[in-house]
Amino acid sequence: MTSSKTDMDQLAQQIDRWAQELGFQQTGISALDLDPQHVQHLDQWLAEGYHGDMGYMETRRDLRAKPQTLVPGATRIISLRMDYLVNDTQPVKLLKDSSKAYLSRYALGRDYHKLIRKRLQKLADKISTEIAGTKTNHQYRVFVDSAPVLERAYANHSGLGWIGKNTMLLNRKAGSWFFLAELFTDLPLPIDQPEQKNHCGNCTACLDICPTQAFTGPYQLDARRCISYLTIESKAPIPVELRSKMGNRIFGCDDCQLTCPWNRFAKTTSESDFSPRHQLDNIQLVELFEWTEQQFLKNTEGSPIRRTGYESWLRNIAVALGNLLASDASEQEKKKATQVLQNRQGSSSELVREHIEWALNCLQRLD
Ligand code: B12
Ligand code: SF4
Predict the structure, then answer these.
(1) Which of 65-74, 199-208, 248-257 has the lowest mean pLDDT?
(2) 86 neighbors 274 (Cβ within 8 angstroms)
(3) How much of the chain, in percent, has pLDDT values that exceed 90?
(4) What is the pLDDT of residues 69-109, one digit of tens each?
(5) How many Å lie between the centroid of ligand 2 and the Cα of residue 95?
(6) Is the C-beta atom of 228 inside 6 A of ligand 1?
(7) Which of 22, 99, 352, 357 could pair with 119 as two cysteines, CB 3.0-4.6 Å apart?
(8) Which ligand is nearest to the CA of 228?
(9) 145 is catalytic
(10) Could you report the per-residue pLDDT of 327-360, keeping only the tens digit for each?
(11) Who has greater pLDDT, 69 or 182?
């Protein structure tokens, strides 16, 4: 294959077909140049301090703003999306049951980083093999989530969707329950049309529902107030004024997606690896709080939950148990919650102990 325009057009179509075979739902191609609005948005966000303790967002700002430095020679980014919503989980019902744990829908099964990276590598191998006759040194790199790449900005540039008021990348046919990933390449592939229209209209459902009022305005998220940041990224004590607002959310939060009308069009995944493990989609808080560190490590092997660590795990559940004690749960449930909290009081770290004390005091709390 030569790199004529027709060949590149055909290759782009072939890449899309391969991606679908590998479990991605959609691909789009963009150049590396970023619309300056995105960089401005990032700089403003950092200047406000909205990134909190995520120091990497600040220190790696230049790589995000100048992706050319990430993969020398790269001229195109193939953005991909993979749906993760599992059928049959009942998120809204679960959020109303203060005795059960709510974990973000993305975190119920296998860690997506591992799964997606493998699939991206397979895709890159297929591309390299296809072009091997004319080009033997295909320069590429694959990314998912953890790299300094403005994933939503590129997904927008490549036509995968628009950025919603909740800052999620939204797609008219798929809502927002999907992961994003990228393959940087030096192949001169044809570029797709960016999604130029914003389809949020007057709706502010996501901004209104946020339990901790983390949005300072449309498209502006103060991560320091976001439950996803507080329960996953931050290792610090959870600010006392936000604890009672967290309900039973112990790992991430989905409210600003659950309420988005575009998610009526979200498709469920057929990826069995994303199926809930250890009944994490329907499990009592007290049961999770009783997991020993060994059990935690065993049960979260290959899961994104492991990243948060045992201390943060206990801290988060202690807050949710406090909220259970302040709720209209049955006396029996409250008794059991009090018991498991007290059982850990003596043996816990300072961080966890302080959250346990807060939780036990919730029995007297009047919401
Ligand atoms: C840091 C981070 C977080 C932080 C901060 C979130 C945030 N909104 O910035 C925290 C921990 C809070 C978080 C939470 C979640 N995250 Co997160 N997170 C990231 C990460 C690593 C970087 C995001 C980033 O650069 N933030 C800085 C801000 C300034 O950038 P941004 O919001 O992406 O916005 C950029 C553009 O979209 C644009 N922009 C934004 N708004 C507007 C408006 C206008 C008018 C314009 C012109 C431009 C513009 O400017 C920005 C710079 O380019 C990305 C992965 C990655 N490498 O990109 C995942 C990522 C964004 N997260 C993801 C997910 C799934 C989540 C959660 C749903 C997880 C959960 N259930 O708990 C929540 C959702 C919370 C929310 N409403 O965003 C997915 C989102 C997929 C999607 N459909 O959008 C990503 C892409 C990971 C992935 N590979 O799939 N996350
Ligand atoms: S994930 Fe939850 S806490 Fe974070 S912005 Fe969305 S609704 Fe608010």
Answers:
(1) 65-74
(2) yes
(3) 92
(4) 889 899 999 999 999 999 888 999 999 999 999 999 999 99
(5) 13
(6) yes
(7) 22
(8) 1
(9) yes
(10) 999 999 999 999 999 999 998 899 999 999 999 9
(11) 182
| Encoded tokens for 174 | 């798929």
Ranges of H-type helices in the chain: 5-21, 36-47, 55-59, 61-65, 91-95, 112-131, 151-157, 205-209, 227-228, 240-243, 255-258, 285-289, 293-299, 309-325, 331-345, 350-361
Pocket of ligand 2 (CB under 6 A): 166, 210-212, 214, 221, 226-228, 253, 255-256
| Cβ 189 vs Cβ 76: under 8 Å | yes
Q: Cα 287 to the chain's mean position, in Å?
A: 25
User: Domain segments of the chain: what residues?
Assistant: 5-86+108-185, 205-364
- Which phi and psi (to 5°) does residue 100 adopt? -100, 160
CA end-to-end span of the chain, whole Å? 68
Token couple for 77: 């980014």
Probe ligand 1: pick from 167, 216, 246, 281, max atoms within 8 Å of CB? 167
Name the closest-CA residue to atom 90, ligand 1.
179
Give me the chain's average pLDDT, please: 96
CA of 357 to the centre of ligand 1 (A): 33
- Cα(251) to ligand 2 centroid in Å equals 12
Write the single-letter amino acid at 187.
L
